[in-house]
Amino acid sequence: MKQKSPVVAPFNLQAIERPLVSVDVVIFTVLEGALHVLLVKRPDDPREPCPGMWALPGGFVDVEKDADLESCALRKLQQKTGVKTPYLEQVGSWGGSKRDPRAWSATHVYFALIPAPESLLQGSNDATWFPVEGQRVRVKLAFDHAMLLEAAVQRLRNKVEYTSLPAYLLPQEFTLSDLQRMYEVVLERPIEKSAFRTRVFAAGLVEEVDKVRAGPNRPAQLYRLAHPREIVYFPRTFSPRKSAED
Amino acid sequence: MKQKSPVVAPFNLQAIERPLVSVDVVIFTVLEGALHVLLVKRPDDPREPCPGMWALPGGFVDVEKDADLESCALRKLQQKTGVKTPYLEQVGSWGGSKRDPRAWSATHVYFALIPAPESLLQGSNDATWFPVEGQRVRVKLAFDHAMLLEAAVQRLRNKVEYTSLPAYLLPQEFTLSDLQRMYEVVLERPIEKSAFRTRVFAAGLVEEVDKVRAGPNRPAQLYRLAHPREIVYFPRTFSPRKSAED
DNA sequence: TGAATAGTGTCTTTCAGACAGTATTGG
DNA sequence: CCAATACTGTCTGAAAGACACTATTCA
User: Fold this and answer.
1) Is the shortest CB-to-strand distance from A197 to strand C under 7 Å?
2) CATH tag for B162-225 (out of 1.10.10.10, 3.10.20.30, 3.40.50.11810, 3.40.50.2300)
3) Cross-chain CB nearest to A13 (options B16, B102, B234)
4) Each residue's pLDDT tens digit, A33-62
5) Do B55 and A1 touch (CB under 8 A)?
6) With a 7 Å cutoff on the CB, does B101 touch strand D?
7) C or N: which end of chain A has fewer Cβ atoms within 10 Å?
8) What tens digit of pLDDT does each residue of B56-95 get?
9) Domain spanning A19-159: which CATH class is it, in words?
């Protein structure tokens, strides 16, 4: 962790200037057939940086409350949504002298997938769902959050190509058509039905629930994740035509 | 970045306790047909944590010197190897109250790939190459560095399955057999020759150099990376038999 | 019966795996 | 010639793409 010169008196930890440390969470869900992300409005106080702008939910690490970065992310998520997320993954960290006018700062970006919420459909005044258009949202974001969001969207899209992640955008029980729709929404392209079903079954991703969903058509078999805690990796991406991107 | 309660006076940034912020670099190379990682010995001073133990090269971010996390990583790398790395990627960050006895700390882990060095073959006293055995090294590492190393090895192995990363373990000019050997060393399994060559050519990974390498056998065509700056993604992993792992 | 969605079957294409075969050098 | 490594060709099999087909409900 530390080696300044061959032999030194112990580093005076009080003497060095410490950066600000924060966590930001990109919370995704699918509403009305489109990928959405939850944003919060920064306070209007002009003494704050980026007053009144939209931003990713997040904030500084609290060394008293937060045992580690991930629990800090879960705390932020709980604050904003009141929901326990079925999936949380670190995207990466961005740190530098320029990204926050107040000080050298490092932020740690996580993304979460949650099923379409009922209560938060029209979020509170300062927390609102925005559709993801391309890799962005229509509003201008505070700090470098547009870049952080872009990285999270890219990671999500990329990983959806070869994993079971979209299942976490659905409630525990879902039909195969539901699941396929989640893939199509995130990837923004249609997927061939029979190939999709073959893959899902071959991977042992789901298990049947002893129920069907009725409708004005043939009822659909309901499934749930066979192993909800572990994400499944498919051996290939969905469209081998164009290569993946990290 | 900040929302404690609906309406507050601006956050007093001096008042909150800031964590320690560091960067650690996992420097990989291939020596004698095996993957190696560079480790440094911590000072023997008993007032330091983990005195005398082996650790990943790294250290605290210097808010004066380091414009951002990546340049901090490059600085650490330069200090230890004197080499400009052809490849550097962030693995992730680990932060918590327990990982450093001195304070709540967050470290940012990068991995670098460099061609087998000539001068550093037997490193200096406090920087030595250790073979990677499985996901670990034989010595016990300081702090949580064993975990960080494990994460880096896993990321490397995983990504080698479907990218051109191993090319950065070679000098600029190499034969296809050289390249294949790098894949085999990192993945610890043989790869089928003709499939390998087909993939490499289909991806447009390399271009011919107007030279051959002679030997006690048929001379081999030399190649270089067609686009050294961008890594290439293959449409499938090398062995579809077992799925990938992140 | 028809609209709508669920689910299956079949043919093609793509590409890795296996493995045998040819090519070109030095000794 | 032989050993050694470079390189190519051919067959097979696994899984995706395309697309047509059947199944089951409600109105």
Assistant:
1) yes
2) 1.10.10.10
3) B102
4) 999 999 999 998 888 898 999 999 999 999
5) yes
6) no
7) C
8) 999 999 999 999 999 999 999 998 888 889 999 999 999 9
9) alpha beta
